[in-house]
């Protein structure tokens, strides 16, 4: 298991370069660059929610993403803000695996200009949960990745380095 | 500022967007599209997404808003050659079929006046 931590100020101007950096880290584990797209999309949606909703207008605060990679199994993202969370998109309660199945979510009319971010996240993730407290508001996203989508050479290097410890 | 490269075909404008379409530039793109639809004599705006490397739900929301506004004026927003990733984002957001899509140059040429 490999863990990474990324932080930035949640701004429209900063969140895309921030997410691209996280996506590059994720892509290094995958067999082809295009496989990172759903992972980058859920990361971007989660961070965009923080930019849009967590902090009052004109008073941006931090966003932190913790990425945990379990090679040949999947990746987990924990996206944290220290603002008011996302009042218009309440998080599913902790410990309810798969709570955000798209079938459980209210529909978004085709003409709606917002409200699709969490639906995209729920659709692409295997489990979505949230918790809020003094340590911040955290959205936990779990994504299983089929074995054939992992980069073989990277895993070989990782296993070699682990066996030397 | 979003950069739209324009190709004027009379009542049809082909506008090529490069880079990304996300929360970072969604408002600017929406404003530019609305300016294009406000041009006299324009019936269709064809947005070329062939060089758009990434699109998220905010980008999609801007296209929905521009398309809805265009329809209210009796005009159309068409999407031209969206990437596989952009199509996947639209499918995930359950917006397949919302926009008229031109898959390739043949589709575009069939739309443009001779």
From TrEMBL, chain B:
STAS domain ranges (all copies): 2-112
InterPro entries membership: Anti-sigma_ant (IPR003658), STAS_dom (IPR002645), STAS_dom_sf (IPR036513)
Annotated Pfam families: STAS
Origin: domain of life: Bacteria
Family the UniProt entry places it in: Belongs to the anti-sigma-factor antagonist family.
Protein name in UniProt: Anti-sigma factor antagonist
UniProt lineage: Bacteria, Pseudomonadati, Thermodesulfobacteriota, Desulfovibrionia, Desulfovibrionales
């Amino acid at each position: 298991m490999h863990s990474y931590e990324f932080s930035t100020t949640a701004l429209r101007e900063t969140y895309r370069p921030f997410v691209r950096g996280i996506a590059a880290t994720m892509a290094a584990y995958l067999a082809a660059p295009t496989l990172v797209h759903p992972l980058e999309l859920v990361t971007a949606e989660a961070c965009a929610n923080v930019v849009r909703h967590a902090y009052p207008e004109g008073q941006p605060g931090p966003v932190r993403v913790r990425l945990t990679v379990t090679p040949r199994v999947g990746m987990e993202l924990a996206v944290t803000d220290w603002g008011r969370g996302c009042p218009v998109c309440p998080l599913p309660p902790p410990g309810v695996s798969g709570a955000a199945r798209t079938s459980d979510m209210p529909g978004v009319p085709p003409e709606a200009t917002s409200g699709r971010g969490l639906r995209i996240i729920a659709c692409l993730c295997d489990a979505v949960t949230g918790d809020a407290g003094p340590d911040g508001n955290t959205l936990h996203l779990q994504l299983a990745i089929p074995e054939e989508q992992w980069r073989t050479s990277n895993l070989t290097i990782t296993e070699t380095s682990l066996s030397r410890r | 500022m979003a950069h739209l490269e324009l190709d004027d075909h009379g009542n049809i404008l082909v506008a090529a967007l490069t880079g990304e379409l996300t929360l970072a530039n969604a408002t600017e793109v929406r404003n530019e599209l609305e300016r294009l639809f406000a041009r006299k004599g324009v019936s269709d705006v064809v947005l070329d997404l062939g060089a758009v490397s990434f699109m998220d739900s905010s980008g999609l929301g801007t296209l929905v808003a521009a398309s809805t506004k265009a329809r209210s004026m009796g005009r159309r927003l068409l999407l031209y050659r969206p990437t596989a990733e952009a199509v996947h984002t639209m499918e995930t957001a359950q917006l397949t079929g919302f926009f008229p899509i031109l898959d390739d140059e043949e589709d575009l040429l069939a739309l443009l006046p001779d």
